Amino acid sequence: MRRSALAAVAAIGSASLLLSACSKADDNGGDGNKSAGANAATKGVVNASTQKGGTVTYELSDVPDSFDPGNTYYAYMYNLSRLYARPLMTFKPGPGEEGNTLVPDLAASAGQPSDGGKTWTYKLRSGLKFQDGTAITSKDVKYAVERSNFARDVLSLGPNYFQQFLVGGKDYKGPYKDKSAEGLKSIETPDDTTIVFKLNTAFQEFDYLVATPQTAPVPQAKDTGIDYIKSIVSSGSYKFQSYDEGKQAVLVRNENWDPKTDPLRKQYPDKIVVKLKVNPETIDQDVQAGDAIELAGTGVQAATQAKVVNDANLKANTDNAYGGRLVYLAINTQVAPFDKVECRKAVEYAVDKVSVQTAEGGPIRGDVATTVLPPDIPGYQKADVYATTGNKGDVAKAKEQLKACGKTTISTNISARSDRPQEIDAATAIIASLKKVGINASLKQYPSGKYFTDYAGVPSFDKKQNIGLHMMQWGADWPGGYGFLQQILNGGAIGTSGNTNLSYLDDKQINEALAKAIATEDETARNSQYAEIDKRAMDLAALVPLTYFKVLLYRPTGFTNLVSTSAFSGQYDYLNIGTTKK
Q1: How far is CA 461 from the centre of its chain?
Q2: How many whole angstroms from its chain centre is CA 360?
Q3: What is the full DSSP assignment across 470-533?
Q4: Residues contacting 198, CB < 8 A, separation 6+
Q5: pLDDT in tens, 259-286
Q6: Which of 211, 207, 265 is nearest to 234 (CA)?
Q7: Confidence bin at 24 (pLDDT 50/70/90)
Q8: Fewest beta carbons less than 10 Å away: which of 10, 49, 164, 522?
Q9: 255 in the Ramachandran plot: left (φ > 0), alpha (ψ -120 to 50) or beta?
Q10: Are 351 and 541 in contact (CB under 8 A)?
Q11: Solute-binding protein family domain: from which residue to which, for each copy (predicted)?
Q12: Are 468 and 413 in contact (CB under 8 A)?
């Protein structure tokens, strides 16, 4: 989702200074973004306005993994959660790569590194309060990190970077088991506004790590573990009015949020409604009618795409953006016979990537991919280890690798998310390709809200169900090679559930190279190391790159301050969207 070099920290002023508008809203209720033009929100803010009031509605075809800021890993929830959960750092609302600019949020300034990048110190802003009026302290941030990273049997979602890199992280059992007042010793809180992180190795991009919602404060006395989702305590500009599991969440203004402590949020709408399990076609209709924003940011459905790209007036309301994302097929290296590299290479050669691209919606949905790192992530180097004529696969080479693996046929299963029609279509195209070489794969569909916790992300489930292949889409945790690669290639990221390393790759060379790269101060050298890791993963045939993802968003009229940001995979930045409708 982001870039690798530490962005310059900038003080954020008013909305009018923060973003350059492509079009201005009619504050009397007009829909000024109608004539903004195609891709306008990738270049600036569309329908810029400071108008307050009204309701902003988001719609999602399934349920999110969790609204709990310490237990979520979808990019759209990282985006949305900032409305009620303020991390130490965050990303400035801005078009395209401008949105990758890292700025202080709960912290007063960027982290102060010492000890060669092994110690990071942050000072909190003064006057911070939770929704109940109690003061937010550094201890609340410390506790948030402890619960999100060290209680994996309770909160299994989200990355576990802090667990991996904090001193003593491998041994600490988390706050639900450890009842001591001290908690994890490598997170120090010498006073109520200072928090210090002690790392076991240099981590040159740590400011990006604390931009995750895992650093958003949680009061320990109010934490109820997995049930915290039912009573989240807000530190942001909005708070939960209601939460009806599987149906809807409603947020309203947090009266104890103080704009003096927050130069980013503007608190424009009166209410924010998130509707869940809405039919994808219905979402498209509501978006085109100007009644909703599609929360997942995956864009319009195939039928809608055909309609809007062939109508000049409709196309003028679309944004086609790269989002630093890769659509790929993860090959499970722990499920036989894909524990043999030759069997994995057979899959690499067998897949007709053009058929997959077509199934996803054509070039407007992404370019054919040949590397792990997308072109808009530092560290990318052009390569094609398993080149085939026209990217349409090579049956002869695939069968050759299959023979080297000691097989003439393979029977396996492929997982995909049931509420993502384009992912299902892409999986179906892959199944057709594989069948031509003797690999018989059956499709297994699972809901996206549980895809990682209960199904594809659970190694024991995959082995039992013979799921050797997984449909996957990935955007970097932050804009750099490490932020992209670590959670999908590092063996240290593998757990009993909630995994995003769906290749289940645990390669000593890659693990050591990732550790070396993140400790390297020189950015050019660091990026070169990421390119080598990419090459190693492809040599091991850990995954089949399918497309460098592009999203086609339809820009609903009546909503204000719409801007497509690379920080959240090309989605609209949800921090300050308002509405001209009453």
Answers
A1: 24
A2: 20
A3: EEEEEE-SSSSHHHHHHHHH-GGG--SSS-S-TT----HHHHHHHHHHHT---HHHHHHHHHHH
A4: 118, 119, 166, 167, 185, 186, 187, 188
A5: 999 999 999 999 999 999 999 999 999 9
A6: 265
A7: low
A8: 522
A9: alpha
A10: no
A11: 101-493
A12: yes
Note the pLDDT of residue 400: 98
Locus of tokens 């069948």: 435
3-class DSSP state of 251:
strand
- The Cα–Cα gap between 140 and 157 comes to 20
CA distance 209 to 477: 8
3-state helix, strand, coil in the chain (%, to 5): 30, 20, 45
For 510-537, letters b (16+ CB in 10 Å) and e give: bbebbbebbbbeeeeebbebbbbbbebb
Q: Which residues have CB under 8 Å from 304's CB, separation 6+?
A: 281, 284, 288, 554
Model confidence pLDDT, tens digit, residues 64-110: 999 999 999 999 999 999 999 999 999 998 888 888 899 999 999 99
Among the listed residues 112, 130, 126, 123, the one whose alpha carbon sits nearest the alpha carbon of residue 189: 123
DSSP bridge pairs for 470: 330, 415
Six token digits for residue 168: 């003593």
Length reported for the chain: 582
Place of tokens 């297994």: 444
Helix 341-350 to helix 421-435 angle (10° resolution) is 110
State how far the Cα of 189 lies from the Cα of 139, in Å rounded to an integer.
6
- Residue showing tokens 């033009």: 37
pLDDT at 199 over 70: yes
CA distances from 160 to 33, 169, 500 (A): 40, 10, 11
Give the SS3 label for residue 67: coil
